[in-house]
């Protein structure tokens, strides 16, 4: 597979993953699909850090688009050496995407470890799973500590797991594109040039 085709495949994959992250982060703001609990007192810090929107979303969308453009045909300006300038731009954008993916990965991992903020039996809003000795992820009986929002633990675990998996893939793909684009800058695009039509 030549550098242009690889860039296009990676770019389309990154665009898809970034949209998944944005949607997952938006859903985290509405526990159980309801806006009743959408305020700063009733959502965890990791939800408000918007790692899926900014890190895994917008910061990865940029290198995705750059990679698709780097894999496109044609020249990026008069006198330009093939797609090398697009590939060079893609190297820097992909490095930025790696930073965004790492941000999303770390916030999602912390959010998954700490668990959701929820209403406890004593009427207070807190993150009860931060204080438990064993992980709530492997002990579903602990999930009964949360009274409201309904199904908040399932909602939280599912969406943060999705963000975690997507950001891992984004990190790998951005790393692949950094290497691929660097090869494209040094060696050029391996696609055959089509001569002028008669």
TrEMBL record:
Localization of this protein: Membrane
Keyword Membrane: yes
Record's keyword terms, sorted: Membrane, Transmembrane, Transmembrane helix
GO molecular function, one term: arginine binding
A GO term from the CC aspect: lysosomal membrane
PANTHER family in alphabetical order: TRANSMEMBRANE 4 L6 FAMILY MEMBER 1-RELATED (PTHR14198), TRANSMEMBRANE 4 L6 FAMILY MEMBER 5 (PTHR14198:SF4)
Protein name: Transmembrane 4 L six family member 5
Ranges annotated as spanning the membrane: 7-28, 48-70, 91-112, 159-187
Membrane protein topology class: Multi-pass membrane protein
Lineage: Eukaryota, Metazoa, Chordata, Craniata, Vertebrata
Originating gene: TM4SF5
GO biological process: regulation of G1/S transition of mitotic cell cycle
Family assignment from sequence similarity: Belongs to the L6 tetraspanin family.
Source organism per UniProt: Myotis lucifugus (Little brown bat)
């Amino acid at each position: 597979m030549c550098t242009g085709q690889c860039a296009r495949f990676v770019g389309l994959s990154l665009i898809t993953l970034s949209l998944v992250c944005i949607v997952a982060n938006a859903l985290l703001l509405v526990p159980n699909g309801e806006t009743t609990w959408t305020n700063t007192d009733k959502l965890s810090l990791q939800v408000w850090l918007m790692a899926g929107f900014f890190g895994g979303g917008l910061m990865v969308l940029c290198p995705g688009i750059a990679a698709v453009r780097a894999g496109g045909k044609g020249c990026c300006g008069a006198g330009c050496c093939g797609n090398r300038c697009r590939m060079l731009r893609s190297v820097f954008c992909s490095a930025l995407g790696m930073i965004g993916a790492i941000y999303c990965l770390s916030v999602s991992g912390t959010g998954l470890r700490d668990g959701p903020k929820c209403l406890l039996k004593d009427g207070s809003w807190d993150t009860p799973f931060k204080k438990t000795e064993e992980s709530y992820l492997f002990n579903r009986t602990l999930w009964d500590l949360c009274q409201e929002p309904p199904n908040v633990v399932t909602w939280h675990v599912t969406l943060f797991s999705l963000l975690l998996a997507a950001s891992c893939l984004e990190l790998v793909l951005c790393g692949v594109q950094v290497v691929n684009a660097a090869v494209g800058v040094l060696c050029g695009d391996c696609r055959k040039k089509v001569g002028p039509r008669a």
